[in-house]
Amino acid sequence: MTRARKPGARVRLTHLGAAGWEITDGQTTILVDPYLSRLRYRARFGLMDTPELSGDTRRVFGPDDDLVCDTAAVDARITRADFILHSHSHFNHTLDMPHIARKTGATVIGTESTTNLARAGGVPDAQILTVHGGEDYEFGALSIKVIPSLHSALNGKHYYDGRVVARDFRGPRRMDNDVEGGTLAYMLRLAGYRILWFGSMNYLEREIQGLRPDVALIAAARQRLEIHDYTGRLMRALDRPRLVFATHWDEQSLPYGAPQDARLREADVFVKEVKAASPRTRVVVARHFEPHFLEPKRG
Ligand SMILES: [Zn+2]
């Protein structure tokens, strides 16, 4: 944690599907909402059933089933992490976190609900940092600004979840106890870059004004259309970042490699929205496990 800042390093960003990313400068590795299990499920409030896919023989998780991490899927891709950041506690953001934190020793940062899920999953207290939003924490090679935010307006804006995961929660995790626990966004300062990440399709405009990130990872699924001028207001509040990655655009209950054509068509609409508000911004719809590089910053 005391490693010196390294301005000259190249930063690699890799999309893990859903809202998840791996971000590293080669020294420090940060995971955000890493969710590789991609569980197949039957309906739950705010979610639609996993679409039919021929040849998909995976187990289907219903509302009464215990949700379990696919450790083989995680271990195939995740080998190290120093920090794991969470936007909120829903299973498609946090289910894999306890396994990853235990195996890597990474520090988990999230809301009270998220960190209680970490405890329930056997992550030692020494690896857990609970935040409210508003913190700006220094870690030597990295600093992390925690930003109060909002969850997507699911189910045609009828979504609301005021529940919190209790400190004494010990599992099991199920769809019917799947709690949001409030939503955060984060800005990382790494190798001279300011990287802003959202894990859900909404934000608090006043909390992001003036952040001026170099790179913004923006949640882009269709629920954004519930929000007035989602993309335009966001681009203006962020002072039109040079580089935007679409995230949380995929159908996250289909396995890696499954066709995502419908979702990609929807993501193209998001790209057009960004270009309309900020013609000089480069927009990338990041594909699963495709590495993207930020070249070393000079000066
Ligand atoms: Zn959610």
List keywords for this structure.
7 helices, binds zinc ion, 299 residues, single chain, 7-stranded mixed β-sheet, Metallo-beta-lactamase, Chain A, 19% helix, alpha/beta, 16 strands
Produce the secondary structure layout.
Elements (H helix, E strand, L loop, with lengths): L10 E7 L2 E5 L4 E4 L7 E2 L18 E2 L9 H7 L5 E3 L5 H4 L2 H8 L2 E4 L1 H9 L7 E3 L5 E3 L3 E8 L33 E8 L2 E5 L7 H4 L6 E5 L10 H8 L5 E5 L13 H17 L4 E4 L5 E4 L5
Parallel strand pairs: 3-6, 4-5, 6-7, 7-8, 12-13, 13-14, 14-15
Antiparallel strand pairs: 1-2, 1-16, 2-3, 9-10, 10-11, 11-12
The chain binds zinc ion (ZN).
Q: Kindly report how far apart the N and C termini lie.
A: 24 Å
What molecules are bound to this protein?
zinc ion
CATH class equals Alpha Beta
What form results from the Cα inertia axes?
A: globular
CATH superfamily: Ribonuclease Z/Hydroxyacylglutathione hydrolase-like
Overall SS class: alpha/beta
Textual characterization of the structure:
The chain has 299 residues and is α/β, with parallel strands linked by helices. The protein has one domain (11-52, 59-294): Ribonuclease Z/Hydroxyacylglutathione hydrolase-like (Metallo-beta-lactamase, Chain A). It has helices spanning 71-77, 91-94, 97-104, 112-120, 205-208, 230-237, 261-277; strands at residues 11-17, 20-24, 29-32, 40-41, 60-61, 83-85, 107-110, 128-130, 136-138, 142-149, 183-190, 193-197, 215-219, 243-247, 282-285, 291-294. A hairpin with a 3-residue loop joins strand 9 (136-138) and strand 10. Helix 6 (230-237) packs across helix 7 (261-277). Zinc ion (ZN) is lined by residues 88, 90, 151, 180, 200.
